[in-house]
Amino acid sequence: MMSGGYTSIDNQKVSGSVPAVSDPSHVAVKFTDSNLQTFPPSGAQGKISGGTQPPHDADDTFSKPAGGSQPGSGEPQGSGWFRTFTIAAYKPYFDVDTSDIIDRLKESLFPFRGTFTEKTATNPDLYGPFWICTTLIFVAASIGTFVTYIAHKLKKKEWDYDINLVTWSAGVFYGYVTVVPLILYVILKYFSAPSGLVQLFCLYGYSLFVFIPALCLSVVPLEIFRWVIAGVAGFMSATFVALSLKAHINSAGERWFLIVTGIFLLQLALAVVLKLYLFTVTV
Predict the structure, then answer these.
(1) DSSP-based three-state secondary structure for 119
(2) Degrees (nearest 5) of the Cα angle 256, 258, 261?
(3) How many angstroms from the chain centroid is the CA of residue 243?
């Protein structure tokens, strides 16, 4: 009985007053619920970064004073034109997601809608134009090299890689989407129909997207087919730019027709240049 009582008391002590000791090798891990749709945190103001939305017109993009830093960014902000040398000044123009890019690419392939400017008026981006131009450079160099290689081999002639194809393509595409919008910006401002500079960069960048599939189709070894492809791509690109700006340029008065016609013909001239230097294979 004593032993039994002792055992009962001992068991009572063990079960009642001595806490259970967990196995040190077993660690309890609690995972919080994750939802990719809530990333970044709700405190962020933009789609990708915490930056604010871009202004409606690029005229005052780099002229508005920004004292201190943006909330939550922790980055110092300059004022006036000093902001052009800060990364934060360009963040709003990369604040787009995949759905935005796809939607704008579709708009460029259906030029007769003429709604691209309206859809990008409050959020023009430079992300799409940069990657479109970069992709064009890569495609032009790779497709051009492949086509000339095949053409030389079929005629049993020696083939050498032309590095100038890369540099020439980079100069044409990057230069075109930079210089032409700048010139058009000045012209529109002169005719009292100013447009946002970044919005023009965005428009001309997306207008070149149609040349990517056109370059890929240029591998077909038929000269007449290459002319047709270059012509169709040039017409679609020129129509896209002209119709996107038509409603805005109407405010310039009777001169709007000349401006739109000049925009259309310049875009067609780009297609002709691309046909002569990228769509043409010489052996």
Answers:
(1) helix
(2) 105
(3) 21
Joined tokens for residue 165: 């194809």
Query: 94, 113, 21: which is closest to 51 by C-alpha?
Result: 94
In a domain, 11, yes or no: no
Q: What share of the chain is helix, strand, coil (3-state, %, to 5)?
A: 65, 0, 35
**pTM (predicted TM-score):** 0.69
Give domain status of residue 61, yes or no: no
Q: Which two tokens stand for residue 106?
A: 């579709």
Other beta carbons less than 10 A from residue 90's beta carbon: 16
Query: Is residue 131 in a domain?
Result: yes
Q: Print the domain residue range for 243.
A: 96-278
The total number of structural domains in the chain stands at 1
pLDDT digits (tens, 9 = 90+) for 122-181: 889 999 999 999 999 999 888 878 878 777 777 777 777 777 778 888 999 999 999 999
24: in domain: no
List the one residue out of 261, 270, 265, 170 whose CA is nearest residue 210: 270
Instruction: Please give the single-letter amino acid code of residue 164.
Output: N
Question: What CA–CA distance (Å, rounded) separates 81 from 251?
Answer: 29
- Nearest-angstrom CA–CA distance, 200 and 88: 21
Nearest-angstrom CA–CA distance, 220 and 197: 38
- CA 70/CA 47 separation, integer angstroms: 16
Copy the structure tokens of residue 174. 């990057």
